[in-house]
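#lab-general

N.A. 3:47 PM
ok so I finally got the sequence cleaned up, no stray characters, all 501 residues accounted for. can someone with queue access submit it? mine expired

B.Y. 3:52 PM
send it over

N.A. 3:53 PM
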Amino acid sequence: MVAHVKTEDLLSSLSAPNTKGGLPKKMSKTISWEELALHKSPSDLWIAIHGVAYDVTEWAKFHPGGWRLLEFYGGMDASEPFLAYHAPSQSKSRATARMPGLAIGNMEARQQTEQQVVFAQMDKAMTDAGMYKPNHGNYYFLYTYLVSLFALIWYLVIHRHIVLASIAIGCFWGQLSFVGHDSGHRSAHITRKSEDWLGVIVNAFLGIGLSHWVDNHNSHHGPVNSSDCDPEVQFMPFIATSTLHFDHTQPKLMQPKTVQRQLSLISRMLVSYQHYSFIPLLLFARYKFYVQALAHFNSRKIYVHRNAEFAAQLFFFAWFALLTAQLPTWTERIAWIVLSHAADWILFLQTVITHFPRDIRPGVQTEWIEAQSVGTLNWSCPAWMDWYHGGLHFQIEHHLFPRICRHNLRRASAILRPMVEELGVDYHIPTFFGAIAETFDSLKEVAMEARKPIRADCGGADGKFPMQPVASATPAVVSAPVTMCSESKLRRLSVVAALGA
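B.Y. 4:20 PM
back already:
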């Protein structure tokens, strides 16, 4: 069993620049950026934050945001992503006392980029405007609504109104997911303990796996829309969000050549029609989360309470099975399981349209504002619909500062949008249906590439997909510096390797 270590408090101390004359004398040394870049493997992992280098090799497994996020920024300056996740106003003095144990030296001085300067200004603007302060009354009202909706679901199932019950549970799971999302980003009630237990409770009624979500979702937030690092744009063999995914697979499948060739052909067929299939596939997305949640327990990377999280997962299956048993016939029970699990497809649609149509690149971009803005999109909707979309329609603001409280996102947008646009960075905001249309067009473009004939000079004789030049992949919107992920990261993040030998 992994000990429950409260490490978020430790990490948050890094958000404050060193104002006491540097590190203690016995640790005082200057580390060059070239030297830092050499330490980027899981067994030798350094990061730089606010002018100080830290060795997080041993500590990465305890990181509340997941070990992968630290690995992505290994050998790099992680000041902006750190500041996005850990507002200075929320730092704890206990963390300040313990963090120097990871410090190994001061980084050599270098000039900040324009975007780094502006990002610090953005954070100050968010703090001054109270964007990090939650509205507890709003959540208590939401909890009352969710309890009432859960009771309604039971009433409808007991009285055999399966279709209405499926619609109700779709709304229930959708709104509960938004609460879990807020909790995972520490933006619902702020304190670590309250957010952890809220996450456990949410998982008891949602069933998608808390630690799996933390590891997966935070890995998505850092290198957003990275073809080889972001797990939330990797859905091979069913969906390829970019032609870059044609080659981003596990190097060795450990299968016979004939099997690999068959997988390649199957993937090619599936991807060729993905613009038609992506919405129907969303009807089955919940089952994937069950498998991933249960599999995650074997990884030993549990970020809350292993026993509590496992009990919550079992409780979910128990109450759902008991509810299903209220129906008298197996025909009704099967219909209920299928319809209820398909009912929250709209939630999964809301998540994919915020990223699939946007710029997808390899590696980790070093300019935070640029990476988060061109890797996401907002969609417009009236203020009275904010509750329904759960803040997902302010994806740019959320990705810039994940700890902005959901009910503050609309106000935050009014502050952040002009600052982003002033930098000349694309701030894209279509309508909801416009975002769906852009997703369709983007997937269709990749599908047309997948349909191109296999050429012998591109490995066709081996049954491999024809590789397109990188320039033919998703068009680049900006030209930010990119640090490529290591081969080990690629192996760990490949969701299903089905293309290539």
